[in-house]
Each structure stands twice: as C-alpha cells, then as structure tokens.
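Handout, page 2. Input:
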Amino acid sequence: MRPWWWRDGQTPIHAADTGTLNSLFFLTLTCASGSAMVQTIIFVPDMKNLLRREVQNGLFAFGPWVASQILFMTIFHGLGAFCLVVPEVYLVDARANFFGRYVLCVFLGPLMFMFLGLFVGALERSSDFEPSRQKCVSLLTFMVLFCGLIIPYPELQQWCRPIYKADPFSKLYNAVLIAFWRGIEFDADCADDLVSEGICYNTGAEYLQSLDVHADQYLENVLTFLVPIGLLAAGSVVGLYRVAYY
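Output:
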C-alpha cells in the first residue's frame, strides 16, 4: 500500500503555494537544527566528565576519542536529515531535481547547531545542561527571527538588515529556497509591472528576486554557512581540550 502522500508530488506547483512551502522548509530546518542542538547539550555534561576522568587516567587519547565522538554525531544527524527530506520530496515535488541540495542544507543546519551546543556546553562551568540550553535556545531563536521567513528582507527595518546579512541561518534558509524555486515555472502570464509589484510571478526566479534572494547564489550561501561551522568546530575542540587537561 502506497503512502497517502505518494501522488501529491506529481501536482503542479502554483505561485500561491510559496508561503506554505517556505514554511515547510523553515520548519524542517528549525526542527532538525534545534533537535541536534538540544541532544548535544544534554550529552555534553556526561561527555565532559568521562573525558576529564579517562584522559587524566591515561586511558583515552584526546584526539582520537573526540574525533570519534564528533564523527558519530555527524553521521547520526546526517541520517536524520536524509530521513526528514525523503518524504518531503515526494510530498512537495517528486519531479524536481532538488533532493541532493536540500539534503545538504538540512544536514548542515544540525551540524552547525550540534557544534554550537558542543562549544557552549564545553565552556559552561556548571555540571547541569540547563544553562547551556538556555543560551543556545536564545541564539537559535534570534537567528530564526531574522532569517527572512517571519519578516521578509524587503519588509525589514533598515537597522535590522545588517543583522539579516550576518545571520548564518538566513544563508541556509536562502540556500533551501534557491534549491527549490530555481527552475520552477508557474502556469501564469504576469505582466512585468505585476511581477515588479510582487502581485504574481511567472517563474520561481522572479519570486526569489522579490525576496532579494539571487537564484544563482546557492553555492555562495552554502559556503558562507560553512564558516561558522568551522569556527564552532574549532572552538568545541579547544573547549574540550581545556576540560581534559585543565
């Protein structure tokens, strides 16, 4: 018996679907990222205690042990991203060639917030995970507010726009929008003046332009998002090194 959503991905995409689909992508990124972050934060106190005890007793080598833990968490969240994306692709548009790009984005979000939880947890002096959770949830909420879904970029106040530009989550969200809407053509015949006013669109690229998102910048957004991942990964290793030896 086929899933009830099996044929939904065969139906044409309409311009009126943009809000619903963008919300779906946003919720997927937010839930995956938040879940990875909280799971890591809960795990960190026990990880710190074990690392401190066994490294100082000479039973663990710091580098291989930390690398194995990070590798395990990375694979775990990668599989989680894959399981999230597969049903959505068949639900939304089974004909579109955005599966690989979408999986990559849904994987990178949890990866960054995994390292955020690891970094904050490693630096936290308390043996409880609650202070780390409060800090990280506040950061995630702040990023989500300025990512471009709740308030689209053209509607942001001038003082908010630099925050949007610097928000890593906005880069990831924009990459997902580009991955899906680029190449989409709507069954519409909109005049140029209607497109410029955001009343209707002929293509997904025109819709992206109305959000101040450039259809040819998928790779640029992804590469920009890799920067905080690298910084948080390095900070996490340094924080755990301090836990093990100081």
